[in-house]
Each structure stands twice: as structure tokens, then as C-alpha cells.
Specification:
- The complex is a heterodimer.
- Chain A contains 6 helices and 12 strands.
- Chain A is α+β, with helices and mostly antiparallel strands.
- Chain A folds into 2 domains: 83 residues; 130 residues, Sandwich (Immunoglobulin-like).
- In chain A, strands 5-4-3-7-10 form a 5-stranded mixed beta sheet.
- In chain A, α1 runs antiparallel to α2.
- Chain A is elongated, with a radius of gyration of 27 Å.
- By secondary structure, chain B is an all-alpha fold.
- In chain B, 60% of the residues lie in helices and 0% in strands.
- In chain B, α3 packs antiparallel against α20 and α10 packs antiparallel against α12.
- Classes of the chains: A alpha+beta, B mainly alpha.
- Chains A and B meet through α1, α2, α3, α4 and β9 of A and α5, α14, α15, α16 and α17 of B.
Chain lengths: 272, 627
């Protein structure tokens, strides 16, 4: 019976590993096409996979050891006494130093990714050049929608709303292929932007204006959602990020501006 | 006080306190209701928390139902609880469900079942004291749970009409929850302001939130009383010979937990009062100026919502270890006994727990990597957080080392302990992903986090508790629990648990956010519905399996086979007392001669255990150790 139980625990660990192994094929892995669509997202994924390998090795090792000691414990003869041991100093030293070296490596290895992402004020673009992200929009969350303010074409984003600013709701337009900065605010309670395919997440906190730096590598739409509980309608803060080439982005701005400032008044000749 | 080599005569002269041997008759109420006996209080905690476990589980099944069959009619529970919505879970109800699930499980199950139930029951028995240092304080610690439970019920909108009428007559309409369950507290167990600070922010942010905060304060008072008592008892009331390094790891873990409680809890209590002050008295600790919520007047402000997160997590991160360390200690005890072998590396185990507790105080910021806190601060928190994995790893290695070479008894206790180790490995390793800040950016507030903490709090702690219930049940009642039912319960729970929670890692990697009433509202999550339905099925299986535990527990009290003092052939002092121990615990005042884990020692002769109270003459010791 004891052997069966040992196998039971080993079996559950094997299933766990198998599930993770096949999960990407079964589409239970990273969303969309599974790739990160931002430079930083790529680094996050690399880091994730590095940790996954370390963790997988540790998991398999410890579960195998657990299965082994259980199996051994099950096969001990009835007349035999258990091993009388209070431990081993050298083993303790080994399994203190080795994990701490691995953990320290993980900790230090990723500092730079984080520093680029949030601290240095300049991030590497897809060509490896350090670029200061350009502020493109102010994103204001509220229960339960996103309001976005852009400067007029060719103008920089001002901290205060300007008469010629362009507004959109639940659609964040950004130029693709280069780092941009979006200022994150909230009108009421806490919210957080989460753009899964770009691996971006940042809370919006009342009283703070938080710059978020990222780039979108492709010209396409990305889903955006809220990741901080903001009330009963938290789940329905559905929005999208529209990443387009510079030309298309400018064209959109012109069009949006024209629509926004159109008062419907036409000269009789044009109206007919 | 304890000395290393107490003489046998010493034992007879030990004064075991005044109240322990009180032979006056106690009334029923004094004996079983307002009892000052640590064992009765421990059992009161145990019964209460087991009932709350079922309540919390039912709330969780509500959450799971919505994730498997969004917006569909929920059988049985739907009619009972959400009849006004046609038996369907509304978004408000959904947010209430996960909030109260977490609240009940954390504040009314995990913390009190470890510290309250097992702490109370085991501490005096395992250190050889006849009761706690402060028996009345101990009684109050239990009875302060009830105002907490009552306030949580009010937070759920379950206050009776007469109470609401009274509040209205007294002019305290701010305490009346209108709308029943659907207006129940629903701002997450973290209750971040401003959602929780401004009553206009959501239907649940009114009176329900105030009641929730008051309830948490009561739980805090209860825990604090326990904590002070445990520290005093463990420091002052050990039996002769019970030196610090002869204490069972259970006692070490309770001691360290008590210290954590004592230093972390006041911060939460203070924060709770600050938030109540913000809500009721017009203070603005957490409310900045000019915030307009739901077209209400702009706030006056001057405060900072992030302050709450710092204060809350300054308690709640150490609290995670409060919810884990005692289980670690108890599992170490049980593993040694069931493997008939000393704990591998006793002192490293103690030092690791101390390290976890110490580091536990400087890692709270890892809950706030995406919060808008100064990002440079995130780096220090990340390094501390990653390093806290080290003592946890050492403990895992030592548990495996304990089983290694043991004569393993594959009973329910052992199986639950192995499940503890096996599942704690998963929970510990998944923690490394989120400790890494850049990765956490992506998985923060997704189901990956949900998977992680369920592996630690349910996978580790609760399986440890299941084992502990089975293990110490004979001492509680003088009878054994049923092994077969215990094993069936274990297998169903283990399978149900893994099938429910392991896929959550994958949901998290797929980017499914937590606290979403309807994730399938987003196209990129639609394909996860079948997986969620599978998980819900497993959760229902696991939920109903708990009736086996309850049934086994209750029926065994009356019909279990009777057992003697030491059915497991264990070493601890508690097994030298009668089962169940009478008032004052020990009929023979215990004197301690060994550490608690001298299983299979060569000096114990034919037996494979050596009780802490058993004196081995020097000559015999020399013969067997070859000196």
C-alpha cells in the first residue's frame, strides 16, 4: 500500500509537469499568438522562461526526492528500525548555499529589466537604442471606462487640457514601433491598465500621475482591461489599444480632430 | 523554569500553579461555554472554524459557479440567496462572494484554526503546563471572535430588522446595510481605498464596509489576546527540563507566529481605525482632494490611498506566514512521528522559521510592484522577497530528509503531511515568478496569483490542518478518527484540489484577471471557459468531500474506537497526559529529559520511541552510544 501511495504523489507531479508541457499546444499559455508584442514584453517572457526552467528543475528534483524517500520508507522491513539521524551539517550547508546562489542570481539578473521599465527614464527600443519615450496621451480611468486625451497633431502633450486636445473613450491610439509614454490617471477609485499582449500593467491611483512606458511592435489592435478591483463593473472596463504606424496615427488624429470639432454646420451650398 | 538536567526528585516539588488543581465543581456554563480551560477554548475555536470553513467553501463555490456558467441560474444556492435576481449571481453579488470568501477563510478559518484551535490546545500540553498563563484572557480571545462573526454577518447585510430599526432610531443610519446580500462588503479582502473609503464608490461601500472594518478589528483584538498569552506561556511555563531547544517545532512555530502577530497586527488595527475615521468622521488619511466619485461632491482630501496599501500589507504579508508557520511546525511533528525518525535538522528548522518571520516584515512591498509606489523601492522588496524563498527551501529539504530512511506509516496523518510538503513546493516555486518584478508586472492580479496563494494556504496549511485534526483527535476526545474515511477524504480533497487550482497557473499565464465576474466578456479569454468548467466540477467535488471530514470528526467523537494516552507512540509531552486530559492536564507533573524527536533511538531498547518524560539512566545511554 505504501508503494502505491508513493506512486500516487509522483503521479500527481508527473501530471503537473505534463500539463505545463502541453499547455502551449492546447492554447492554455500566453494570450494571442503567445508572443509578447513589445520589446519589454519580450524580456519579461525571457525572464519568465528562465525562471520556469529553474523552477521546473527544482520541482522535478524535489518531487522525485519526495517520491523516492516515500518509496524507501514503504519498503523498509518490519523488523528494521528507522534510521536514527538528527541531520547532516554538510547537507544543510549545501542546500543553503546552492539555492541562495540561484536565488541571488535570479534577483540580480532582472534588476536591469526593471530599471529600464520603470526607473531610468529611457528605454531600449526594438533596435537596442536607448530612447526617451514620447508622451502621446493621458489615460484617465473612471468607473467603468477609460477616457483618453491626446494633444493636437504636431503639438506636445500638456499637463492641463488644451482647447484643441483630442479625446477618445475606450480606445487608446498610439504610434507603433517606438517607445511611447502614456500618463495614467484616475478620476475616482483605483484602476489599472492591463494590456496582456504587451505585458503591461500599471495601477492608476487618485492624486498620482503615473507615466507608463511601452512600445507596440505591430500595427494592430490589442485588448486592454482593468486589473485592479474598482467596483461591481470591474470586469466590464473593456477597451482596446490601437497601434498604428506614424502616418496612420497622424491621419487618425486629423480625422478624430475633424470629427470632434465638427459642429454640423454647413454652408447651404455644401449641405444639399 | 527549565534546566537542562532536572533531577527526578525535582519533579515532585514543582508547584503547578493554583488554579490547575481546583477541585470545586464548575457549572455547565463555566465548564463548556465560558470556560477558561485552554483545551475547551481550543475545541471551541476548532468547531467554530470548521463551520466557518464550510461557509467560506460555499462562498467559493458561488464564485466557481459564476466562472463556469456565467450569469446562469444557480441551483439551490441561487434560490436561497439571490432570489431577487432570479437565482442568478449579479456582478455586485459576485464581488461580494469573492470578498467574503477570502475574508471568512483568512480571518475566521485559517488564522483562528492554527493559532486559536491548535495553538490553544497544544501549547500547554506540549510544554507541560497545566494551562495558559492568562486563562481569562484566553477565554476572551475566543469570545471576541463572536462579535467579529456578528459584524461580518452585518457586513453581509444579514443584520436582523430590529437591529436596523434600533440604529435608525438612534440616528445611526450609516450603520444600516440596505439591500441584503447583494449590498454585502465587496471591495476585496484588501479593501483598497478609495473604493472602500467613499461610500458612493459602490453599493457595497456603505455601511457594509464599515461593519467589515469593525469585524476585522474584533478579529485583531482576539488574535492579539492570543498572541500575548502564547508568548508569555511559552516563555514562562515550560515544564522542568523543557529547554527552548527541546521544544517541539509546533511550539517554536506558535511562538514565532505569536511574535509576528504582536508586532504586525497593531498596524492593521490602526489602519482600520483610520479608514473608519475617514468614512465616519470626515478624516482624510487615505482620500486625496478633488476626487469625484459617482457625481458626488468632490472630496476635501489631502490623504494618500497608497498609505493604506503600505499599512495593510505591513500586516497582511506577515499574516501570510501567520497562516503558514504553525502548520509547518505541526507537520514537522507529525512527519517525525509517522516516519519514526527524528526531524532532520531540528535547529535549521527553527532558524528557518525565524528567518521567514524576520524577512516577512520587509517584503510587504511585493504586493505593490504595480501600485505606483516608487519603482526603485520595488528593487529592494524584490531582493528580500526572493531571498525569503531560501528558508522555505531549507525547510522543504529538511522535511524530505526527515522522511528519508524512515519507517513510513502510510496513514491519513502521513498522507496529509506529504500532501503538505508536495503542495507547498508548488506554492513556494510559483512564488518565485511573482517575486521577480518584471514577471510580476504581467502576472499581478491574474489567476497565477490566485493559484499561488491557494497552494500555500489551502494546499499547505489546510492539508496540514487535516493531518493535525486526525493526529491530535485522540488527545482531544480519547477516541480515534476513522482511517478509511480519512483516506477517502484525503484522496478526494487532494485530487479535487489539484484539479481546481493547478490549472489556475495556466489561466494566469493566459492573462485571465482575478475578480472578474465575466472574463469571457473579453475575446482572448473565451477559450478558457471549458477549462474553468472542469475546475468548477473539481471544486464542487472537493467542497462536498469536506462533509466526510465533518462527519468523520463528529461521529468519531461518539463512536470512534477508544484509545489510550499514546496511540501513535509519539514522544511529545501531550501524549503523557490522559486522553482527554482533565482540567490541569497532567496527572503526573511532567519532567523533560530529551528533545521531542528521539524516535528509533538506540537507547530506547525495543521501542522505537522515547518519550520526553522517560528517563534513561546514564549507564544505558553510554552502552548504546558506544562511549
Amino acid at each position: 500500500m505504501g508503494k502505491l501511495w508513493s506512486l500516487f504523489f509522483v503521479f500527481s507531479a508527473v501530471i503537473a509537469v505534463a500539463l505545463c508541457w502541453f499547455a502551449p499546444d492546447w492554447n492554455w499559455w500566453f494570450p494571442g499568438d503567445g508572443k509578447a508584442h513589445s520589446t519589454l514584453g519580450g524580456k519579461i517572457d525571457d525572464l519568465f522562461h528562465l525562471i520556469l526552467i529553474i523552477v521546473a528543475v527544482t520541482f522535478i528534483g524535489t518531487q522525485a526526492a519526495l517520491g523516492y524517500v516515500l518509496w524507501r520508507g514503504a519498503t523498509i522491513k518490519p523488523e528494521e528500525k528507522a534510521l536514527f539521524s538528527h541531520g547532516s551539517h554538510s547537507l544543510e550547508v549545501i542546500w543553503t548555499i546552492v539555492p541562495s546562489a540561484v536565488l541571488l542570481f535570479i534577483a540580480l539578473y532582472q534588476l536591469d529589466v526593471w530599471a529600464q521599465f520603470r526607473i531610468k527614464g529611457a528605454i531600449r527600443d526594438s533596435h537596442g537604442k536607448m530612447v526617451r519615450p514620447e508622451p502621446v496621451a493621458e489615460l484617465t480611468a473612471r468607473q467603468f471606462e477609460w477616457r483618453i486625451r491626446y494633444p493636437a497633431k504636431g503639438k506636445p502633450l500638456q499637463p492641463q487640457p488644451q482647447p484643441d486636445d483630442i479625446y477618445s473613450v475606450n480606445e487608446l491610439h498610439i504610434p507603433s514601433g517606438r517607445p511611447v509614454e502614456v500618463t495614467l490617471r484616475t478620476d475616482d477609485v483605483q484602476h489599472a491598465i492591463f494590456i496582456p499582449e504587451l505585458r503591461i500593467k500599471q495601477d492608476a491611483v487618485a492624486s498620482l500621475k503615473i507615466p507608463v512606458w511601452f512600445d507596440a511592435l505591430e500595427n494592430r489592435d490589442y485588448e486592454m482591461l482593468c486589473a485592479e478591483l474598482c467596483g461591481w463593473g470591474h470586469y466590464k472596463m473593456k477597451a482596446k489599444v490601437v497601434a498604428r504606424s506614424d502616418a496612420d496615427f497622424d491621419a487618425w488624429k486629423e480625422q478624430a480632430s475633424a470629427e470632434q470639432f465638427d459642429d454640423g454646420f454647413r454652408k447651404p451650398a455644401e449641405a444639399k | 523554569m527549565s534546566t537542562l538536567h532536572p533531577s527526578i526528585e525535582h519533579a515532585d516539588h514543582v508547584d503547578h500553579g493554583g488554579h490547575g488543581h481546583g477541585h470545586h465543581e464548575l457549572s455547565f456554563i463555566q465548564k463548556y461555554v465560558f470556560s477558561t480551560d485552554h483545551k475547551v477554548i481550543g475545541l471551541q475555536f476548532l468547531f467554530t472554524t470548521l463551520i466557518m470553513l464550510m461557509v467560506g467553501g460555499a462562498l467559493a463555490l458561488g464564485v466557481r459557479w459564476q466562472l463556469a456558467r456565467p450569469w446562469e441560474y444557480m441551483p439551490i444556492f441561487g434560490d436561497l440567496t439571490f432570489a431577487s435576481d432570479g437565482g442568478q449571481i449579479s456582478p455586485e453579488a459576485y464581488t461580494m462572494l469573492f470578498t467574503m470568501h477570502a475574508t471568512v477563510m483568512i480571518f475566521l478559518v485559517i488564522i483562528p484554526i492554527l493559532a486559536g484551535a491548535f495553538g490553544n490546545f497544544l501549547i500547554p500540553l506540549q510544554i507541560g503546563a497545566d494551562d495558559m498563563a492568562f486563562p481569562v484572557l484566553n477565554m476572551l480571545s475566543y469570545w471576541f471572535m463572536w462579535p467579529a462573526i456578528a459584524c461580518f454577518a452585518c457586513a453581509l447585510g444579514l443584520a436582523p430588522n430590529w437591529l436596523n430599526e434600533t440604529f435608525l432610531q438612534l440616528g445611526m443610519e450609516k450603520l444600516v446595510v440596505r439591500g441584503g446580500l447583494i449590498a454585502g462588503a465587496a471591495n476585496g479582502w484588501t479593501s483598497y481605498p478609495l473604493l472602500s473609503a467613499l461610500e458612493q464608490a459602490s453599493p457595497s461601500s456603505g455601511a457594509a464596509q464599515t461593519w467589515w472594518l469593525i469585524a476585522v478589528t474584533f478579529v485583531g483584538v482576539s488574535s492579539m489576546m492570543g498572541s500575548v498569552n502564547y508568548m508569555t506561556t511559552i516563555i514562562n511555563m515550560r515544564a522542568p527540563g523543557m529547554t527552548l531547544f527541546r521544544m517541539p517545532l509546533t511550539i517554536w512555530s506558535m511562538f514565532i507566529t505569536a511574535i509576528l502577530q504582536a508586532f504586525a497586527l497593531p498596524v492593521l488595527t490602526a489602519a482600520g481605525f483610520m479608514l473608519v475615521a475617514d468614512r465616519m468622521l470626515g478624516f482624510c488619511f487615505f482620500i486625496p482632494s478633488g476626487v469625484v466619485v459617482n457625481n458626488a461632491a468632490p472630496t476635501v482630501g489631502g490623504g494618500q490611498p497608497l498609505l493604506w496599501q503600505h499599512l495593510f500589507w505591513f500586516y497582511s504579508h506577515p499574516a501570510v506566514y501567520i497562516m503558514l508557520l504553525p502548520a509547518m511546525g505541526m507537520v514537522s511533528d507529525m512527519l517525525a512521528c509517522m516516519c519514526r525518525k527524528p526531524v532532520f535538522g531540528y535547529k535549521p528548522m527553527v532558524y528557518s522559521m525565524a528567518a521567514i518571520a524576520g524577512l516577512g516584515f520587509i517584503v510587504w512591498g511585493h504586493h505593490m510592484f504595480t501600485s505606483g509606489m516608487n519603482p526603485a523601492l520595488g528593487m529592494t522588496f524584490m531582493v528580500a522577497t526572493i531571498m525569503i524563498a531560501l528558508p522555505s527551501a531549507i525547510k522543504v529539504f529538511n522535511w524530505i530528509g526527515t522522511i528519508w530512511g524512515g519507517r513510513v506509516q502510510f496513514n491519513t496523518v502521513m498522507l496529509n503531511c506529504v500532501a503538505f510538503v508536495s503542495l507547498f513546493i508548488v506554492g513556494g516555486l510559483s512564488g518565485i515568478f511573482m517575486a521577480a518584478v518584471p514577471v510580476d508586472i504581467y502576472i499581478h492580479d491574474t489567476y497565477f496569483i490566485v493559484a499561488h496563494f491557494h497552494y500555500v494556504l489551502f494546499g499547505a496549511t489546510l492539508f496540514g490542518v487535516f493531518g493535525a485534526i486526525q493526529f491530535w483527535f485522540p488527545k482531544m476526545w480519547g477516541r480515534m478518527m476513522n482511517e478509511t474515511v480519512g483516506k477517502i477524504h484525503f484522496v478526494l480533497t487532494f485530487i479535487g484540489f489539484n484539479c481546481t487550482f493547478f490549472p489556475m497557473h495556466l489561466l494566469g499565464i493566459a492573462g485571465m484577471p482575478r475578480r472578474y465576474a465575466d472574463p469571457y466578456h473579453f475575446p482572448y479569454l473565451e477559450h478558457l471557459l471549458p477549462l474553468n468548467q472542469f475546475m468548477t466540477g473539481a471544486a464542487i467535488l472537493m467542497g462536498f468531500a469536506q462533509f466526510l471530514l465533518l462527519g468523520n470528526f463528529v461521529l468519531s467523537i461518539f463512536f470512534g474506537p477508544k484509545c489510550g494516552r499514546n496511540p501513535w507512540n509519539a514522544n511529545g509531552l501531550e501524549w503523557s497526559a490522559p486522553s482527554p486530559p482533565g482540567h490541569g492536564n497532567f496527572d503526573v507533573p511532567p519532567v523533560v529529559y530529551h528533545g521531542p524527536y528521539e524516535y528509533s533511538s538506540p537507547v530506547s531498547g525495543d521501542k522505537d520511541f522515547l518519550m520526553q518524560t522517560e528517563y534513561v539512566p546514564l549507564a544505558q545511554r553510554k552502552v548504546h552510544t558506544g562511549h
